[in-house]
């Protein structure tokens, strides 16, 4: 519990900082991108130079992406848009969406979805949280494996539980400890923002995110969401 509190406080501070800096960074970045693109399009530069410009433009877009993620979490409460969400459908959609990528990476992607009640929540944010976890699972299985998403209702405690389990590299004690800390990443090209955003979203929804992981064996994340039922009568 204390751990959770510290994490929430940290996220709040990062959110406020993000709100303050993001716009300030984005404006000059937009100017730089504009001029880079102008030079990129000019006839005078060689094919080889153009490649360098491609890289610069891509890197600027990456920075922009990071800023968007930071802005997203800067004022999340206000941004929550609740409506009727079909969690079962949302998860089955993911299986379709990632079939190609899974196949290309020798990953078996399975979903086990029991009949679920409709809930009142922010579908887009929940989607983002789940996608962040799916992406991490994919990245944890560079040599293939199995990704299983299972969703169930626990009527007695009025919650829905979504397990996202992979047979990937697993996490060390240190990684588990630092999970959700802004910019913490073990990947060469990682941003270290995915888990922070995911923790944040689930917390906003009044839910919780727990994790079990074993090095070399795999990782299971469990999202527990309170059941804000939709009256369909
Ligand atoms: P990023 O993916 O950009 O590194 P994240 O915040 O999404 O940032 O994840 C932070 C770190 O947590 C990752 O770099 C990785 O070390 C670890 N991690 C997250 N999910 C998994 C997973 N399913 N299996 C193994 N490690 C994971
Ligand atoms: Mg990630």
Task: Considering the chains and any ligands shown, give keywords for the structure.
233 residues; alpha+beta; binds adenosine-5'-diphosphate; binds magnesium ion; two-stranded antiparallel sheet
Could you provide a short overview of the structure?
This protein has 233 residues and is of the alpha+beta class.
Q: Mind explaining what this structure looks like?
A:
The chain is globular and about 70 Å long. It has 233 residues and is of the alpha+beta class. The mean pLDDT is 88. The protein contains seven helices and seven strands, in the order αααβαββαββααββ. The relative contact order is 0.13. The protein has helices at 2-41, 47-74, 76-79, 87-104, 123-140, 173-178, 194-204; strands at 83-85, 107-113, 119-121, 145-154, 159-166, 208-214, 218-226. Helix content is 54%, strand content 20%. The two termini are 38 Å apart. It binds adenosine-5'-diphosphate and magnesium ion (MG). Magnesium ion (MG) is lined by residues 132, 135-136, 194.
